[in-house]
Amino acid sequence: MSRASVEEMIADADAADEAAFVDDLDTPVLKQRFEADNEFIFLDEFLPVETTTRFQARIPELAEAVHRNYIPRHKKGGSVSRYALDELAPEIPALYRNPRFIAWLERMTGETLQVCPESDPHAYALYFYTEPGDHIGWHFDTSYYAGKRYTLLLGVVDESSAQLEFELFKNDENRETVGDARNLRPGAMCLFNGDEVWHRITPLGDNERRISLTFEYVTDTHMSGWQRFVSNMKDSIAYFGFKQVFKRDQR
Ligand SMILES: O=C(O)CCC(=O)C(=O)O
Ligand SMILES: [Fe+2]
């Protein structure tokens, strides 16, 4: 085989890689911003349109797998767990596990990252905000793992006025808190250290719809028995329901 055709084959394989787009990002600059902003970055344009479109095409089927929750004064909305995504939208777990994608996140965070174990229903999930007032109150994405937890949010559908509001440097006594709010439009992303960035989603208005995708990566997949129990209770009550969470925790 000629050298040219080998190079063409490599180029084709690269183009076929769903995460090839990360090579076009100015990672050193983005990493600097991420570090300067308390391990937080928001980008309005991140996922290629084709990828977002592929995810959007799964929404009608996924809508049947939505589990809705209402926790007075904290959260109202729907969620689809990783187990439903494994069955109904395999391109989502494929991106979550894509080695090139993870390598990019490792460059950004400066950490060796692991995907969450099979038993974690929240490793990747979709959030459906579909009824007026759907929201989630101020919180950290606390790590129940032995190490750090990074959250990646990806905008899938956003026909809404609901915003991701965030406060940086919340845990830093020596710095003023910096707050802002953004709409997570289709293709947008937000990457942050869950234990550092205080955030919420403001209530959905009438006739609005917002669907976001979350990926969770950790620096250590170990979780103590007690932390696992707390994490499972939180996922059952606030997100996916007991059936989805505890059925799967037997593995
Ligand atoms: O809907 C989102 O974009 C984020 C929701 C969130 O912060 C959470 O469920 O922890
Ligand atoms: Fe969160």
Automatic annotation (TrEMBL):
GO terms for molecular function: metal ion binding; oxidoreductase activity. InterPro entries: BesD/HalB-like, Oxoglu/Fe-dep_dioxygenase_dom. Pfam families: HalD. Residues 120-219 form the Fe2OG dioxygenase domain. Keywords: Iron, Metal-binding, Oxidoreductase. Belongs to the iron/ascorbate-dependent oxidoreductase family. This is Fe2OG dioxygenase domain-containing protein. It comes from Salinisphaera hydrothermalis (strain C41B8).
